[in-house]
Amino acid sequence: MTSHIWLKSRLGLLFPAVAIVVVTWLVFWMAQGFPTACNLMGPCSGRDVRVAPALLFGGMMLAPLAAVILMSVVRSPVGWLVRLSYVALVLLAVVGYVVISFSGGFGVDAAFLAGLLGTFGTALLAYVGITALRRET
What we know:
The chain is mostly helical. It has helices at 2-31, 51-60, 62-73, 79-102, 110-136. It is elongated.
């Protein structure tokens, strides 16, 4: 019975981090379809102008995710590292979405607002993960 409780608490610590990365990657992918705005003075940017920031910020999210995964398999997780990893995941999600949105210009439409809502929803997922850590320690 004890192993079942341990597994449930570790999944409660791990699941929000994985959900943050998956939701953020979906939002980054969705943001690739935003129409680009042309500058009056310069040439219009290409269709792939948002790919590099999405790959950069999406790739950087793997480091905090790996830290949360490693802390979920050790016997006693280091609380400050898990909290720092969740903060890094949320910051990378929000800053990445802003950078992706502003590269090439954008218009505020329903798709942009849905992506913004999904990105800020990662803070709620991080709170769930930190609460799971708090219950364990």
